[in-house]
Amino acid sequence: MIKTKELSIRTQKDCEVINITDQVAHVISESDIDNGIVTIFNVGSTAGVTTTEFEPGLVNHDLKAGFERLAPQSARYEHEETWHDDNGHSHVRASFLGPSLTVPIVRGQMTLGTWQQIVLIEFDTRPRDRTVVCQVMGE
Amino acid sequence: MIKTKELSIRTQKDCEVINITDQVAHVISESDIDNGIVTIFNVGSTAGVTTTEFEPGLVNHDLKAGFERLAPQSARYEHEETWHDDNGHSHVRASFLGPSLTVPIVRGQMTLGTWQQIVLIEFDTRPRDRTVVCQVMGE
Amino acid sequence: MIKTKELSIRTQKDCEVINITDQVAHVISESDIDNGIVTIFNVGSTAGVTTTEFEPGLVNHDLKAGFERLAPQSARYEHEETWHDDNGHSHVRASFLGPSLTVPIVRGQMTLGTWQQIVLIEFDTRPRDRTVVCQVMGE
Question: What is the CATH number of the domain that holds B47?
């Protein structure tokens, strides 16, 4: 059995971390699937998905500092020189993080830890309307 | 057909890399599933899963040095200031690596390379009792 | 329903980014599966898969610069000292990026963005014959 739903998420800024756990859980509870997997997939090449403890220190500072070490906003990007934009670092960060996450479902619940939330991380430099595909597969 | 099993893994220290390939293979062999996928998912926000060649140089030194460049233990973390703990770098590393891995199963075997093992990487600063969910889905 | 196909890809050099989107789409179109997931998995421990906008600036320069920050080619690797080779950075980069990617399929199409392509990134220092497993599961 397969149920697919698109989440629509408005983002505001670079390195915004958005907790989408409740929205994913809602798709699962509506699906009548008790055991299986949910695939969470960001459509587009300047945002990604992962899990984190959703608390202000990590979400507003620490994760951003890590991404800045990997792909500093001020570095030289050929992407920016070619296209005359400012989001070369956004693409690099998104490709490193990856667009997809798979979470097992057991007895109707995702197997997340207590302090583990599913997040969309926006890397683009302007507000975006994001589509995140949630697909539940199982029995 | 879906079979789920939880692996219980005792870890000892920060950046410990633990080979869980045989335990995952055992779950598959017990499942009677010949074709499909296995999802390996770390429960919690300070460890992650990936694949690597499991040899001492990479496992005891080189991977750790890479994580140290991304999120140095000695950097300033707001997570640590808020919660008065010492594992801000652990959270950042775990979010970058990701909690989940999906491996195809063909004729009862995972499609791993000869020098490619499935590993859990502990990032927390103290010993932990980890739960890794192994879910086999297929036919 | 499950269909598996191996893609054979000849790579040329370190940090080569290869667009495999069309090959994955072809496997899906041949599978008669309309809804479900495709798992893309690199066999081996010195290459990985992700998505990116496949344009020359990112592909030939910017992604490579990011990987160089994470695991510089010139750093000291115990892997290289043990095995007398030169690909310690390749292993570290591949483990960080990860070997697997999962993309939802809806009405016969992957839910990729317009500027989002599936890529294999070679990290090894010599040409390789890569096997990428494409497994389609669904209905």
Answer: 2.60.120.460
